[in-house]
């Protein structure tokens, strides 16, 4: 039995509320169970120096956790004077995941920065950030298209992510914190809307896993991503 009482293949409740901030070109608040992430997308008519003059655009991301997003207060990274390794790794994951669903030539020489701020954490924050980040990105691109600043839709597919793992010997979908902290195997699966893989992060956390178990986790992830894509499409409809 899972701590939440969910079935092995059952996602947490997912909701995506759009237009939650006044100034960002695209914004949403995604809730996956008790994990809540605010995602905003900001348009800039510039690109990083390494692609200037190429005619291509750029999508990047920043990620952070608010001090009381967890059970005890954490120190703001700004107070420490630098980002932690986990933060850097996650925001790079978000950026390259979102770029996988973008035609950068169609975007033109402009940058979209997606900021993902964890308001409340209960496992799967990077997956929620990627899934909500795509919604914010979609809304920002819609504004570009409405203004006639791009002639072709730069977004070629949805991008969503979900966690899967082996908890108490059983493959499970969408781990919350009690499961994530005790899982023998933990994985994050990032996919396009057609289930093509962008990235898989799998690691043994005190146990090991077989090829058959990995295939089972992949099947759970595909089903979970399909549900998330439906939620994304409904949010931006």
**Main sheet characteristics:** 5 strands, mixed
Supply the CATH class.
Alpha Beta
CATH architecture descriptor text: 2-Layer Sandwich
Total count of domains:
1
Strand order of the largest sheet: 1-2-3-5-4
Order of helices and strands: EEEEHHHEHEEHEEH
Strand-pairing-aware structural class = alpha+beta
Our estimate of the beta-strand percent is 25-35%
Overall strand count: 9
CATH topology: Ribosomal Protein S5, domain 2
Which runs of at least 5 residues are low in confidence (pLDDT < 50)?
Answer: none
Distance between the ends: 37 Å
For the record, what is the CATH homologous superfamily label? GHMP Kinase, N-terminal domain
Rg computed from alpha carbons, rounded to a whole number of angstroms: 18 Å
Q: Which word captures the global form?
A: globular
- Rounded mean pLDDT is 96
The helical percent reads 25-40%
Number of helices: 6
Q: What is the subunit organization of this protein?
A: single chain
Overview of this structure, please?
With 237 residues, this protein is α+β, with helices and mostly antiparallel strands. It has a single domain, classed as 2-Layer Sandwich (Ribosomal Protein S5, domain 2). Helix content is 32%, strand content 29%. It contains six helices and nine strands. The strands form two sheets. A five-stranded mixed β-sheet has the order 1-2-3-5-4. Strands 7-6-8-9 form a four-stranded antiparallel β-sheet, sandwiched between helices. The model has no long low-confidence stretch (mean pLDDT 96).
